[in-house]
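Q: I'm building a small set of examples for a reading group on sequence design. Run inverse folding on the following structure and report the sequence directly after it, with nothing in between.
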């Protein structure tokens, strides 16, 4: 019984889930400020010993409804592997960052992982065909 609890403890410490975060940045930011904000979030994720597997810049898009009186925002997606406890730290970091209007983090299940792989493959095919 003790061995099972110890094995479960080891598995929980080393097992990392895959997450996807999309965040929206203030539209009045310059290109350098957007890159700086993304770098700050990426570095924060990497410094906590997590692995970023994919990043996408979706650019400036119109919002469905105004957020802080803004009608557009810079969208950015980061896919990463992390322990569940890291998500709380990431949420706090998003709250501290004034440049970020909204964010959403989702744990990817096996179906979402398959879809994400297809999406990544489609993006790389588009880049190769250009």
């Amino acid at each position: 019984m003790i061995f099972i609890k110890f094995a479960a403890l080891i598995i929980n410490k080393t097992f990392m889930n895959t997450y996807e975060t999309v965040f929206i940045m203030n539209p009045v930011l310059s290109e350098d400020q957007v890159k700086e904000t993304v770098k700050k979030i990426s570095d924060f994720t990497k410094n906590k010993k997590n692995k970023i597997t994919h990043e996408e810049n979706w650019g400036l898009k119109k919002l469905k409804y105004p957020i802080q009186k803004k009608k557009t925002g810079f969208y950015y997606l980061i896919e990463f592997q992390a322990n569940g406890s890291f998500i709380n730290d990431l949420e706090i970091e998003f709250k501290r960052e004034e440049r970020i209007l909204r964010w959403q983090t989702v744990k990817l299940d096996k179906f979402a992982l398959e879809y994400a792989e297809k999406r990544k493959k489609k993006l790389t095919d588009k880049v190769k065909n250009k």
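The first helix runs from residue 2 to 14.
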